[in-house]
From TrEMBL:
It comes from Poecilia latipinna (sailfin molly). It comes from the Eukaryota. The keyword Repeat does not apply. It is found in: Membrane. Keywords: Cytokine, Membrane, Transmembrane, Transmembrane helix. This is CD40 ligand.
Length: 247
């Protein structure tokens, strides 16, 4: 029998295994480190530019406000007379007060004016009635036509000017009365007198009772002007007035 599995041809040679590349892992690690470092540098640069730009913008806005303030001060200096020049620079020497002390736009105040009555005034004492269309109020309410009601507690400068005319032998009295809204109790907080009597042959025919005081008021307190004789009051717009101003 012939052996067909044997042959005289040489077997093909198997190539030797390729040795592992030892330098590939360090190279890969180096590339990863470079990419990570580049990422950190990019993020850090972006944050630095962002905050630096904001800081520059903030400083620029302050500089612009300072320039506007200087220009405004210069314009006011040009408008003020030379003898009053020191008044413009006085705040710079003593320092500006806090903002809440400078702003007086929204402080409570009232200036009440009287008008001529339509009917004949009786000869008796009583409270003066004010013309709301001629008066000015801010953050102060009113009750009826005679009383002012305090809405904001604090110290107020209260004043009153009542002018009397015609003839009267006895001295005339005017006073400011305070009424507690809760109890209804009234008390005098300021009082003054004047006289229309003939003295030494002089007859001025006019006298004025002027009242002014600083009063601490609570919310709900009411103020009014009381006079001894309503028929002798001069009802001119500028002759008789009443007001208050929160300090």
């Amino acid at each position: 029998m012939i052996n067909t599995y044997q042959t005289s041809m040489a077997l093909p040679q198997v190539p030797p295994p390729v040795p592992p590349r030892l330098g590939s892992k360090p190279l890969l690690r180096f590339l990863v480190c470079v990419v990570t470092l580049h990422l950190f540098l990019s993020v850090g640069g972006f944050l630095y530019l962002y905050y630096n730009e904001r800081q520059i913008a903030h400083v620029s806005s302050k500089l612009i406000l300072l320039i506007i303030a200087v220009l405004s001060l210069e314009r006011k200096v040009n408008q003020i007379k030379k003898p009053d020049m020191h008044l413009c620079f006085f705040p710079l020497l003593v320092g500006f007060p806090p903002v809440e002390k400078q702003d007086t736009t929204y402080r409570a105040f009232a200036r009440m004016l009287i008008g001529k009555p339509n009917a004949t005034i009786e000869k008796k004492s009583g409270y003066l009635e004010w013309r709301m269309d001629l008066s000015v109020r801010k953050n102060i309410n009113y009750y009826g036509k005679s009383w002012l009601t305090v809405l904001e507690p604090g110290d107020y400068l209260v004043y009153s000017r009542v002018t009397f005319s015609k003839h009267s032998i006895a001295p005339l009295t005017g006073c400011i009365k305070l009424k507690n809204m809760e109890t209804g109790a009234e008390k005098e907080v300021a009082k003054a007198h004047c006289s229309l009597s003939d003295k030494d042959g002089l007859n001025p025919q006019l006298c004025t009772v002027t009242l002014q005081d600083v009063i601490t008021l609570s919310r709900g307190n009411q103020l009014s002007v009381w006079v001894e004789n309503l028929s002798l009051v001069d009802y001119g717009k500028q002759s008789t007035s009443f007001g208050m101003y929160k300090l």
